[in-house]
Amino acid sequence: MQLRSGSYGRLNGTRTVICIFIAVFLSLHSAAAELKEPLRKGDIAIVPLQGEVSPPLLLFLRRALKRAENAGATAIVFEMNTFGGQLDSAEEIVTALNHATIPTYTFVNTNAGSAGALIALATQHIFMAPVSAIGAAAPLLSTGEDLPVTQREKTISYWSALIRGTAIRNGHNPDLGEAFMDKNKEVKIGPALVHAKGSLLTLNAQEATQNFDGKPLLAEGIVDSTTDLLRKTALSGRPITIQPSGFEQLAFWITKLAPFLLLGGLIGAYLEFKIPGATVPGFISALCFALFFLGHYLAGLAGWEVVVLFALGVVLVVIEILFFAHSTIVFGVVGVFLILGSLFWAMIDRYPDQRFLPTGGMLATPLFNLVAASAAAAGIIAILARLLPHTSIYRRFVLATSNPPGPSIAGPRRQFSSASSAREGATGISLTTLRPSGKANFAGQVVDVVTAGEFIAAQTPVRVISTDGMRVVVQAERT
Asked: What's domain 36-241's superfamily in CATH?
């Protein structure tokens, strides 16, 4: 029995779709395994914030925060030891913490310098180790030099407003946050002068816990460890530490390269279905989609629900191709919308306290990535659709699948022919489903053909209505 090239291509594409499912599933399963002891409702999440404040640290904190809230944790405790880092990452961390719906604690062990001090102010409770310090958050250039005067004034003005609002929201003295950044800020509580102008404010544990009018200046107490903190605050629950994974840096780059991963996935999937017998495009497509979902999962953006939507969309597309290619497009259209919707939803940064429907600001980057990738893929696919049939690689695969090795009782071996063998008015029979391109047999010669837009089932009589070089346009023969 001979296997027609169109059927082989559809089965080969289906196999690749299954490979995509497996690749995405295994990637997310291995990522989920990084948390050896999962959080449960009532637990207390302990999150170390150590090293430079940078994009990977942002991804880790955001993922940990969402995991704690979705699990129903009683509280989240950040064990901080940082001398600071990038202000843009600190700004996004502050924004993430302001979305927290569970109590937040910072344990300064041993440094909360620069950007770390600003992050600590974004939590509701601050505790410090006996030998620790917090403050000195002046903005600097990456070289360590002071900002130019105008830029420095603009930066301090913006951050002062942000930190004042953050401090007030979390019950801290907003003047302290300003004094951390601006050496010209004086801090007074009633008649007492806490900090004079002329230098940036930095507090050690003893200074931060001083009482003014019956209230600590900044830190609520001095503790030796997170265990001591839990004991003194009477927080009940099982403490579970969420460790940063080695994939945080990878997740940062994957989310930045999202448009290119989408582009590679779409083009690879197209080539897999277009070239029967080829496996490299399908492998590349599976790898791109697996990396896309893995990166967004590790970045705290995507969960299992988007993978389920993606899988359902691909299943519907496969059903359309295998069973309804020449009768209806409903399954295919719904499947494509589910696929694009899942890819789009995976890039939206949504916190548990936000409404289900995203706002305009949340849609900007995902929409740009999806539109840019889709437009680029459509353009490249259009070029490939015109040029691919004339390449030696494509013809080699077509011949291999149209003429499988070994004896056959289906008749003489068919030869591939150029478009010149099918002249206008010639009649033949479609060998594959024309949707709208495919292959037809004209007097024993196999020719690449295309319809005017309609789908034509395999083994349907067709007639050539026009030719343009290598392009042969056919329509179903009317009976």
From this structure: 2-enoyl-CoA Hydratase; Chain A, domain 1 (3.90.226.10)
